[in-house]
Structures are given as C-alpha cells and as structure tokens.
C-alpha cells in the first residue's frame, strides 16, 4: 500500500469546480431572475409611455364638469354683478 501514490492534483470534483470552469456552468440563476424582472418593468414603463403619447395625440380632451347655478351665482356676486332676476 505504501508504494501506491494517490495523485489527485489534476482531478477536481465537479462540486468544487466553480471558479475554474465558469463557461460550461451558464448564467447565475439570480442574474437570470434579475434580468427577467428588469425586462418586465422596462416593457411596462415603455408601454405606458407609448399609450400616454398616443392618448395625448388622438383622444379628445376630457369634458369639464358643468358648473352649477349656485356656484355661478356665487361667482357673479363676488365680481359685483347681480344675478338676473334679483
């Protein structure tokens, strides 16, 4: 038994071969999740921007709510103009 040499210097178990052979391992799973989430957020923001610019160009402006007669009367009194019928 003493004459047999166990020379394992050139053989590394696969679980410890992280630093030496990173090309065959692929991308880090955390990095893949980060890229996917960032991509979805980017698509969401770009889509919102495109819809907003489309709406600004093509949709008519919103109608204002009609002012009530009571508010019109109050505004006229503030300006010093008497409301008709008084």
TrEMBL record:
<keyword id="KW-0539">Nucleus</keyword>
<feature type="region of interest" description="Disordered">
    <location>
        <begin position="60"/>
        <end position="86"/>
    </location>
</feature>
<keyword id="KW-0238">DNA-binding</keyword>
<keyword id="KW-0804">Transcription</keyword>
<keyword id="KW-1133">Transmembrane helix</keyword>
<keyword id="KW-0678">Repressor</keyword>
<dbReference type="InterPro" id="IPR006779">
    <property type="entry name" value="S1FA_DNA-bd"/>
</dbReference>
<keyword id="KW-0472">Membrane</keyword>
<comment type="function">
    <text>DNA-binding protein that specifically recognizes a negative element (S1F) within the RPS1 promoter.</text>
</comment>
<dbReference type="Pfam" id="PF04689">
    <property type="entry name" value="S1FA"/>
</dbReference>
<dbReference type="GO" id="GO:0003677">
    <property type="term" value="F:DNA binding"/>
</dbReference>
<feature type="region of interest" description="Disordered">
    <location>
        <begin position="1"/>
        <end position="24"/>
    </location>
</feature>
<comment type="similarity">
    <text>Belongs to the S1FA transcription factor family.</text>
</comment>
<keyword id="KW-0805">Transcription regulation</keyword>
<protein>
    <submittedName>
        <fullName>DNA-binding protein s1fa</fullName>
    </submittedName>
</protein>
<keyword id="KW-0812">Transmembrane</keyword>
<feature type="compositionally biased region" description="Basic residues">
    <location>
        <begin position="60"/>
        <end position="76"/>
    </location>
</feature>
<feature type="transmembrane region" description="Helical">
    <location>
        <begin position="31"/>
        <end position="55"/>
    </location>
</feature>
């Amino acid at each position: 038994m003493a004459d047999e040499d166990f020379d394992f210097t050139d053989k590394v178990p696969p679980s410890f071969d992280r630093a030496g052979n990173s090309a065959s391992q692929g991308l880090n799973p955390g990095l893949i999740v980060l890229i996917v989430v960032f991509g979805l957020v980017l698509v969401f923001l770009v889509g919102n921007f495109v819809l907003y610019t489309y709406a600004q160009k093509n949709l008519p402006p919103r109608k204002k709510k009609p002012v009530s007669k009571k508010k019109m009367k109050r505004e006229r009194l503030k300006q010093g103009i008497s409301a008709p019928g008084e």
